[in-house]
Amino acid sequence: MPAWLWMPIVMLMVGTFIVALISVHASAQEVRSDLSAKPTGRIHFNSVTPKSKWELVHRKYDKTPTPIWGTLYLPENLQGQVPAMVISHGSAGPQQKDVDRWVRLFNQMGMAAFVVDSFGPRGIANTMDNQSQLNPAANDADALFALKLLSTDPRIDPKRIGQIGFSRGGGVAMDMTLDAFRKGVMDDDTRFAALVGFYPGCSALWWEVPPPPLTGAPLMLALGEKDDYTPAQLCRNAADTMQRDGQTVEVHVYPGAYHDFDNTRAYFKYFPGATTARDCPQTMIDVQHDAYYRLQTGEKYAGLQAMEADYKRCTVRGVSTGANLEQAQRAEADVKAFLTKAMGLSPR
Fold it and tell me: How many separate domains does the chain show?
């Protein structure tokens, strides 16, 4: 065969071999167990995927690692160890506003930010129409493994790592007040220093009877007055119970604000297929002791199936979301003030 015929074939084979080598190298370096090498950008790390919050609390989940990823953003002019925030997304998955608003704010405050993606690595686009695709316990686990990972970074102060979440991720913030959830992953004293929950679903409050051991992290709740997805009043009720039992909770309700009011692009949208438990009787779920209650009356359900039957009857579809740029700016200022105090930051 003439050289001009076989040379392209050889080059193609060499090129394919190089691509294969690059792929093997990339996959070999993807999953990190510590950040001693000081990476930035997208970082792959291991979490787990509990099928329920009971599994997480009792460590009955499958211990097979679930590779996920997050993106690490560091402030400019990094000097010494800095505080950090883990960012947990909602049912729509990671959003551009997580970076445009919240990463920007935290970096300006001299803090690192780690945006965790719980959906993409698991092949999930969003869970708005079907929340059963991923139990929220997995979002809890992802935040805890992110905390564990960031604690190994020499650029980050392991005692000043907080968490902020939106909708589903806001539920993570509420769960992280309980030591039982923290111990679902942690074997040592590693814990979040501060928690911020934006419009979490408060139809069910994970709590304990008698009052639970707490992690000690203060909690801020940012709620929309017009939220018909995760109504503000339910979170106010939950905050009352938490405060009664010793949890520090700072509640902000923003006038005229809908779900996702902190979005950076002006919009309003109705989602006819999205499910909500806004009309359900508010419950308190004690997975530590397998006990289930109506939050307002203290009446105890016969068991988990009885409570779930209630929810099947009352869960409905149809929610509104929309940005409120004015109230989002107010929320930014409130988060900044809350974290400045909780983290012991110098005002900027």
Answer: 1
Dist. CA 16–CA 33, nearest whole Å: 30
Whether residue 117 contacts residue 41, with contact meaning beta carbons closer than 8 Å, is answered with: no
pLDDT tens digits along 8-29: 333 334 444 433 333 333 344 5
For residue 66, which of 21, 116, 24 has the smallest C-alpha distance?
116
SS3 state at 123? coil
**CATH number for position 294:** 3.40.50.1820
Which pTM was predicted?
0.91
Burial 320-332 (b: 16+ CB within 10 A, else e): bbbbbeebbebbb
User: In whole angstroms, how far apart are CA 90 and each of 199, 206, 216, 253, 315?
Assistant: 10, 18, 24, 19, 19
Cα(232)–Cα(48) distance, integer angstroms: 31
Range of the domain at 148: 30-343
Does residue 210 have a cis bond before it (omega within 30 degrees)? Answer: yes
Report whether 70 contacts 35 (CB < 8 A): no
